[in-house]
Structures are given as C-alpha cells and as structure tokens.
C-alpha cells in the first residue's frame, strides 16, 4: 500500500491585506513539523501542493525541517482552497453583511460555517465556483495523487479541500465537510493509505510538531 500525508498549511495572515502568506509563527510551525516528520522516519518520494503562496511557504519550511535543501514539488490546483472571501461576498451581495466578517475571527468562522451550508444547498447565487465543481476538483486531485508509481506522498493543501477529501473517503453527509474543516489545525497531518482500488483514512488532524515545549504552535487560523 502507498501512503499519503495530506497536510494543511501553517498559519497564514488572517485579517491582513494579503492572507495568502505565512505569519512569523506559521514559518516556525512548518519547520517544526518537518523536524517531527523526519523523526518519525517519513521520507516522501513524491511532493505535491496547490499553487497558493501559503502552500509553497509551508512545504519549503517542512523540507528545511527535514534537512532537505530543495524538493521537486508538483503543483495541482485541485488542492487549492475554495475562495472563502468570494463566497462570503457572494452570499451577502446586495445585502448587509455581518460587521467585520472578514477580520474578526469569531464572526468570520461563524458566518463561514453558515455560508458553506448554504453553498452546499445551492442557495448562493453566482459563487466563485459551485459546490459540485469544488467536489469534482478535489476528486481530480485525489486521482492525481493516487497514480501508479508513487509510494509515499506528501501533499500540501488547505482546510476546506482536505476536509472534503476526508468526507468523500468516509462517505459522510456533506454537512460533515465544514465540521471537519473547522477542527483542522494549522500544519495538521492527515494520513491515508491507498491502493489502485482503495483509499482509506488512517489518521486525522495529527500534530506531531506540538509538544509541551511548543504548545504555542497550536492554532486554527
């Protein structure tokens, strides 16, 4: 069986003009995760990521933590996060939005949960992508990862995309996707084993880089 380590990016820059870059803490998280994976004996032969800046910066930190100067990383845009800013704006297009919806964490994630449920029910007009389109590109990314010839894959993605891949693997009701997403820690490791005919969740939301000494690395946004 082959292994997949599907990892959420490290802490990005919530509330900043450019969310899509790691915070100072995020850089430390990614490096520490690389060290922890190396200590576990993880040696990926294939590296894959979405094409977002926070994906690239996280995978660079992991590689450095593993003692690798460079890694040959493939890009698959199916691993990108859904456009949550655009989705929230689409939901409230022409209507008053909650105050500080994009900058206050509590307001943002409460509103995002409600918005994703509406998105799944096709109740948002003209979203950046439909729920069906989102599900399909996550499935295309999974198929790309599971191609012949790979043995140990490290893939870097985002919470919404990872949660959908888990939800699909477990064949859960779609409401579980956002519940999984809101639990997802920064730099969380989700492990799968797979064969040409099977894809199985083997570990969820693991954080081997967080210890008593590094408990300040525990973040969700």
Describe what this molecule looks like in 3D.
- The chain has 221 residues and is α/β, with parallel strands linked by helices.
- The chain has 2 domains: 9-82 and 129-217, Rossmann fold (3-Layer(aba) Sandwich); 83-128, no CATH class.
- It is 40% helix and 16% strand.
- The chain has a 6-stranded mixed sheet with strand order 3-2-4-1-5-6.
- The chain has helices at residues 24-39, 53-65, 84-91, 105-120, 131-145, 159-170, 175-183, and strands spanning 2-8, 46-49, 73-75, 152-157, 189-195, 198-206.
- It has 7 helices and 6 strands.
- The longest helix has 16 residues, at 24-39.
- Strand 2, helix 2 and strand 3 (73-75) form a beta-alpha-beta unit.
- Helix 3 (84-91) packs across helix 4, helix 4 packs antiparallel against helix 7 (175-183) and helix 5 packs across helix 6 (159-170).
């Amino acid at each position: 069986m082959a292994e997949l380590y599907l990892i959420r990016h490290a802490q990005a820059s919530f509330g900043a003009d450019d969310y899509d870059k790691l915070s100072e803490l995020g850089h430390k998280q990614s490096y520490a995760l690389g060290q922890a994976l190396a200590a576990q004996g993880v040696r990926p032969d294939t590296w894959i990521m979405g094409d977002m800046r926070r994906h690239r910066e996280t995978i660079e930190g992991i590689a450095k933590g593993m003692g690798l100067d460079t890694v040959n990383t493939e890009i698959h845009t199916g691993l990108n996060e859904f456009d949550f800013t655009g989705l929230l704006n689409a939901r409230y297009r022409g209507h008053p939005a909650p105050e500080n919806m994009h900058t206050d964490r509590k307001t943002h994630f409460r509103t995002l949960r409600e918005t994703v449920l509406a998105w799944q029910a096709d109740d948002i007009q003209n979203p950046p992508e439909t729920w069906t389109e989102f599900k399909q590109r996550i499935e295309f990314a999974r198929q790309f990862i599971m191609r012949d010839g790979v043995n140990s894959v490290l893939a870097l993605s985002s919470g919404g995309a990872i949660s959908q891949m888990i939800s699909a693997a477990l064949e859960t009701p779609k409401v579980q996707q956002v519940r999984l997403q809101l639990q997802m820690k920064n730099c969380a490791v989700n492990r799968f084993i797979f064969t040409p005919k099977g894809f199985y969740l083997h570990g969820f939301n693991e954080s081997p880089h967080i210890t008593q000494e590094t408990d300040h690395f525990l973040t969700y946004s």
